[in-house]
């Protein structure tokens, strides 16, 4: 199987798949991995095969270290997986795989509702937990800004596709609303087109990550299918005309900054503070008359003054950081209010 050869060759820990074309309750069985899928429920009666669908393959070694559960699968084309470390419940990673049907497809959806549903879920990810969203977004966003210029100081994004479609602008607005950015073209080994076929070249597949966690995602790489075929020696092994995908493989590495605490560890011992007493009965009356003693006291006073200044500066920075976080949270709440308002207007319009 072409997919199995790819996973083995590239030694992937987690693989997100868009357009799985699996029907009913069928799954992908792959030795050494566990499958988590969301198949398209409603297939046309005349359809000869399945369509749409998303899923994630996770290596057994990862599943041995993490409790892996489906966090959300309520929206067709959006699957969220939660990985919670078995030894420390505070260490959590969320993974989302997305498939947004093309704008002119017979299975096209309301793009605003699609991104609104995705935004709602992003806001439920606990503060500080790492997450990423990947898949086929069918959004060509050219060199549109994926952050608020002047506020979010992000590295420039290397762009290879300067074309756009109607989804592109909505996609970038969604990114600024949820404080996320495109990984493609950042922290990159090789950036390239993600869709390559006889019909043309484009970038419609992306990995999306939080601004504040961009530094933990590295070595982003796009590998065209033609190169995959060469690297896994697929010619002669498979009927490539039937199974060859027209989307590239996107890979990257994640450095998770997890805490080392263990929920099974013994509670810390009750360490009492030891009081230190000094015997000053035998101090000479002229102990302050020596120049060295005065210098030592001056040095201690200066160190205390410097320490106070540094503490004041740290407190100021903490206050500024708190203010920045509160400003960001207020922005998120405003976005949620706008989301609710748009949903309310659509509901009223549909009722009419």
From TrEMBL:
Residue stretches in coiled coil: none
Presence of keyword Coiled coil: yes
Q: Which GO terms describe its biological process?
A: intracellular signal transduction
GO MF entries: catalytic activity
Every Endonuclease/exonuclease/phosphatase domain range: 7-211
Keywords, comma-separated and alphabetical: Coiled coil
Record Pfam families: Exo_endo_phos, SH3BP5
Could you say which residues form the signal peptide? none
Family, as annotated: Belongs to the SH3BP5 family.
Which protein is depicted?
Answer: Endonuclease/exonuclease/phosphatase domain-containing protein
């Amino acid at each position: 199987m072409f997919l199995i050869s790819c996973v083995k060759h590239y030694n992937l820990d987690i693989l997100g798949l868009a357009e799985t074309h699996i029907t009913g309750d069928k799954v992908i069985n792959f030795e050494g991995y566990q499958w988590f899928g969301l198949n398209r429920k409603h297939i046309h009666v005349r359809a000869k095969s399945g369509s749409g669908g998303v899923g994630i393959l996770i290596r057994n070694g990862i599943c041995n270290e993490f409790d892996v559960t489906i966090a959300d699968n309520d929206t067709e084309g959006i699957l969220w997986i939660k990985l919670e470390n078995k030894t420390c419940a505070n260490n959590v990673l969320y993974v989302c795989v997305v498939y947004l049907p093309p704008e002119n497809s017979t299975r096209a959806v309301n793009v605003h509702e699609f991104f609104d549903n995705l935004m709602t879920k992003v806001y439920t990810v606990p503060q500080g937990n790492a997450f990423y969203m990947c898949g086929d977004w069918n959004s060509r966003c050219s060199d549109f800004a994926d952050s608020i210029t002047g506020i979010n100081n992000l590295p420039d994004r290397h762009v290879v596709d300067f074309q756009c479609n109607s989804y592109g602008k909505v996609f970038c607005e969604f990114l600024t609303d949820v404080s996320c950015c495109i990984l493609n073209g950042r922290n990159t080994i090789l950036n390239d087109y993600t869709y390559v076929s006889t019909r043309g070249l484009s970038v419609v597949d992306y990995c999306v990550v939080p601004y504040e966690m961009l530094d933990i995602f590295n070595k982003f790489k796009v590998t065209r299918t033609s190169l995959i075929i060469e690297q896994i020696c697929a010619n002669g092994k498979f009927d490539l005309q039937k199974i060859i995908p027209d989307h590239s493989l996107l890979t990257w590495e994640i450095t998770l900054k997890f805490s080392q605490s263990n929920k099974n560890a013994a509670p810390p011992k009750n360490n009492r503070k030891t009081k230190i007493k000094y015997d000053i009965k035998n101090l000479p009356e002229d102990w302050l008359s020596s120049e060295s003693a005065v210098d030592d006291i001056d040095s201690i006073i200066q160190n205390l003054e410097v320490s106070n200044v540094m503490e004041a500066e740290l407190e100021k920075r903490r206050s500024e950081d708190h203010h920045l976080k509160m400003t960001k949270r207020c922005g998120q709440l405003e976005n949620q209010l706008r989301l609710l308002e748009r949903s309310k207007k659509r509901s009223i319009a549909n009722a009419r």
